[in-house]
Write a structure and sequence with these properties.
With 216 residues, the protein is α+β, with helices and mostly antiparallel strands. It has a single domain (5-208), classed as paralog of FGE (formylglycine-generating enzyme) (Alpha-Beta Complex), CATH 3.90.1580.10. It is built from 4 helices and 10 strands, in the order ββββααβααβββββ. Strand 2 and strand 3 form a beta hairpin. The radius of gyration is 16 Å and the shape is globular.
Length: 216
């Protein structure tokens, strides 16, 4: 499945007691897939990351650290003449909510999670297998946790790992292994940036095109 980007228009994110102005940005409609990530590792003659025997192709790439994701952003940017990066925590939540104010972007009913998310499952599934959120973004919850660019703000501490904030990075969205409760838009986990797991991946923000290049 070819990656495409969705323009997220500027607006206000209201999360808990916080109100944050979010500028417009472009976010990948899907998490980065094995097809995309394998191009990177093959080009640099790096070992391919494990797919746990589930299959590669359009499944979201897994077993990648925050450092791996950042390195992919840099490589893909040079290839495409764009600047890619990971979304900030505020950008991720704003895009996931898609203008809603409920526990989940589809409402408050956790039993509807299976219509929008790969959740409480035995493995990942190809990206785009479920319904998108109202802004056309797929798998914002479930399938894989997604690395964020920045360190975490306070947010929802229900499932937070006990780690020093200065040495961790935030992941959002829950994964295939989690229950629907974990998919709450405000939920966060902090992980060390070298952490790799079968339930953690990432998606891209396309920030700018580089001078002298055509459209990204």
């Amino acid at each position: 499945m070819k990656q495409r980007f969705v323009e997220i228009k500027a607006g206000t994110l209201v999360s808990g007691r916080d109100s944050v102005e979010v500028a417009s940005f472009e976010l990948g409609a899907f998490a980065v897939t094995f097809d995309e990530y394998d191009q990177y590792t093959d080009a640099l003659r790096l070992p391919r990351v494990s797919d746990e025997g589930w299959g590669r192709g359009d499944r979201p790439v897994i077993n990648v650290s925050w450092h791996d994701a950042m390195a992919y952003c840099k490589w893909a940017g040079k290839r495409d003449g764009c600047k890619y990066r990971l979304p900030t925590e505020d950008q991720w939540e704003y895009a996931c909510r898609a203008g809603t104010a409920t526990k989940y972007f589809w409402g408050d009913d956790a039993t509807l999670a299976s219509e929008y998310s790969i959740v409480s499952a035995g493995k990942t599934e190809p990206v785009g297998s479920k319904k998108p959120n109202p802004w056309g973004l797929f798998d914002m919850t479930g399938n894989v946790w997604e690395w964020g660019k920045s360190k975490s703000r306070d947010g929802d501490i229900g499932l937070r790992l006990v780690r020093e904030r200065e040495t961790t990075r935030v992941v959002c969205g829950g994964s295939w292994i989690n229950s629907p409760y974990v998919l709450r838009v405000t939920n966060r986990i902090n992980l060390t940036p070298d952490y790799r797991s079968s339930n953690v991946g990432f998606r891209l923000v396309r920030e700018t095109k580089l001078k002298g290049w055509g459209p990204c």
